[in-house]
User: What shape does this take?
Amino acid sequence: MSGSAPGDETAAQDGGGHVPPPTEPGAASTGEPLGRLAALSVCTPVAGRVLAMVEVPDPVFSAAMVGPGLAVDPMRAPGTAVSPIAGSIVTLHPHAFVVVAGDGRGVLVHLGIDTVQLKGAGFELLAQEGDAVEPGAAVLRWNPAEVEAGGRSPVCPVVALDAGSDAVLDPEPVGRWLTAGERLFTWA
Assistant: This one.
């Protein structure tokens, strides 16, 4: 997010992206004790190679300032970014989106670094804010090769917003290639 326009801290701080904790964590229907949420499987939104968050060329993401997660170095071809979890799209920009699950946990997908500067050029929205989505549902189209040709990194951070550093469990191994919609990590 370095070089982002003022106020574009994409979802984490723009009012529409702050994810408040659920009013009653661990819904009674799950049988979980209060204060404990069920594990949430987070899928990769794009096809590519898994990266550790510290490898993201942006200090906001590499230092996990908005939450822990993993990143994906996408295939350099036109593609579709998909929802990483079931929930509602609460924030949607051409370069980033947030999906919030029914229990209040939100996942930020940021397509490339400094891509806010493109002002939507090269991105095609396929969904709208407020849409209910399932994991793997198409959210937008983009071309990582064009992002890279323009001098920007196409690396895609996938962030468990406002989660503790120990919330990401069982991550896929760094270096592994995944297709869009495959499990990336578990948020516990």
Summary: DSSP finds two helices and 14 strands in the chain. The longest strand covers residues 87-93. The CA atoms of residues 90 and 110 lie 14 Å apart. The chain has one domain: 28-187.
